[in-house]
Write a structure and sequence with these properties.
This protein has five helices and two strands, in the order H-H-E-E-H-H-H. By secondary structure, it is mainly alpha-helical. Strands 1-2 form a two-stranded antiparallel sheet. Helix 2 packs antiparallel against helix 3. It starts with a helix and ends with a helix.
Length: 134
Amino acid sequence: MKGFKEFIARGNVIELAVAVIIGAAFTAIVNALVDGIFNPIIAAIFNADEIAGATWQIGNVSLGIGLVIAAVINFLLIALVVYFCIVMPMNKLNETMYVRKHGHKPDEEEAAITETDLLTEIRDLLAAREGQGK
């Protein structure tokens, strides 16, 4: 039970739950936008009564591409909103927090630090500590 409490108390689990709830609510908005605006436009382009009936005729073969196009539009709209409303603000917030903590923007050199560099720094710090203790 203790492990379960620690798992639930982690920020990531709560953030994920909030994201799922907001995502489900946002899906209704995107579906209404796609069904109310984009689907009729696409259906008109393909001369169909509804998007599901939009087809592309190639010889004797009729390809029903309306649903695929609607799904792609739906995906792109969701991806755009997630990027501009969640990812970009979070990246900006993380950069601001880094600047407050370190006094400068993160440099590429600092981000590319290797395990060997860290171990060397630890070795040097331990050597310096031993030198002060004597």
